[in-house]
């Protein structure tokens, strides 16, 4: 019985560690999206100050290429929409992973408690 519980404990511990790793990856993705969001919002703010006579350039590799102002603004707006939708998706993943971690944590505590009770019962017999 104790061996089966030990096996369950090890499996649950591995699952919990994997969830921790998953959570870390999701948090990193969220941070990258936050950085992209800030960068694109800054660009949008800069675009707001442009006059129709201003020239916009896009960096393609090592070369600056002239770009239509309206197209550049549209691209930034589309990028912002995409980033917002990705943030929403990542937030869902964060909540889901945190919920799974809490559940797994409870499972670990239950298994450990049962093991301790068995060990105490074996010691007192």
Automatic annotation (TrEMBL):
Gene Ontology CC annotations of this record: cytoplasm; prefoldin complex
GO function term, MF aspect, one: unfolded protein binding
Coiled coil as UniProt keyword: yes
UniProtKB keywords: Chaperone, Coiled coil
InterPro entries per UniProt: PFD_beta-like (IPR002777), Prefoldin (IPR009053)
GO biological process: chaperone-mediated protein complex assembly; protein folding
Annotated TM spans: none
Coiled coil: 2-36, 80-121
CDD domains, alphabetized: Prefoldin_6
Protein family membership: Belongs to the prefoldin subunit beta family.
Protein name: Prefoldin subunit 6
Organism in which the protein naturally occurs: Tetrapyrgos nigripes
Lineage: Eukaryota, Fungi, Dikarya, Basidiomycota, Agaricomycotina
